[in-house]
Amino acid sequence: MTKEEIQLLAEKIVSGRATEEEIVLYNRICAYGETTGNDAGKISDAEKAELENALKQTILRKIGRSKVYHLKWFTYAAASIVLLLLVGGVYFWLNERHKRQPEYAKERSYKGDALPARPGAILTLANGQKILLDSAANGALANEGGARVSKKADGVVYDNTDKKATVAWNTMTTPWGRQYQLTLADGTKVWLNAGSSLTYPTVFAGKQRTVMVTGEVYFEVAHNGQMPFIVEKGDVKVQGAGTHFNMNTYDDENALKVTLLEGSVHVSAIPDKSGLAGNPQSAILKPGEQAVISPSIGGGRGEALTIDHSPDLEQVMAWKNGRFVFAGSDIGQLMRQLARWYNVEVEYKIPVTDLFYAEIPRNTRLSDVLKALELTGKVHFTIAGNKVIVTP
User: Fold this and answer.
1) d(CA 299, CA 322)
2) What are 110-125's pLDDT values in tens digits?
């Protein structure tokens, strides 16, 4: 196609006149331009501004509202700009559709569709008793070593009112398709993403506050300079006093990541069987930095701990803020998030090598998320029961 034909196709897209086939064709042309360096799909800043304004007007017509939205831009190849605009349009359209819940509720259900994760967890007490928090009523749940455990609207809260309380250990677990929040006995607030767990004492005693995690957990640590707060995942330890940080420790990800938002933390890891045993690799993070540790630490190869001085904080914290943010994510990263959030299995018929850029609300049905991603023309999905099948 000539540059003029591509521009005409872009105009049809932003005016709302393009068919699904034309959208897919345009996105494939953009993807080809990214791969080959062909400049046929490139547009100037002035053209980009014009397309953005046209897209806003298209979105307003679709949702029937007068509110003007600010579109966030990812700074990547110019050939993909219209694709990103389209994905942005999908985001705002889905967001508004969920705000208009009565209308959305009338739509048909998709066969094999899945609803997004909802609040829920399993609380395991010191004696092994398990409490399903999904169905437990608000109010007192247990008394653990003198600490009162209560369920409130914003999660489980531990209240240590007994000076003679003894230390007992509890574990909170969020299965796939669930997320939850709790407040520890020292006032530290904790958010658990889907497929995560936190093991912690019901009261804090001694010289430090220690907890253990799996999965992904965000901490807002209550300040106590005399008793540092320590989070452990295998041989990795994160220590702070009063600080906010996120830990992504999923075993199926390619690295363990600690991202600091406020305060200061000390991150250390002791490699096993690498010749460096007893010589911790460590770093002190500043706000806005991320420690990246290979999951093979503790498994024999002893890779170094590295620091990312400018991670994408919006992407890191998207799960807690109720969004999916894919900024150059490969299909594996993307589908692992969807699998945990919607509690589904994923099967790949043929490998997909493209990268994806999208921002979608997490309160969206699985089928709508997949449809938004299919608009890129890079991937297709089939929902078969509890399984999502991925094909190019």
Assistant:
1) 34
2) 457 899 999 999 999 9
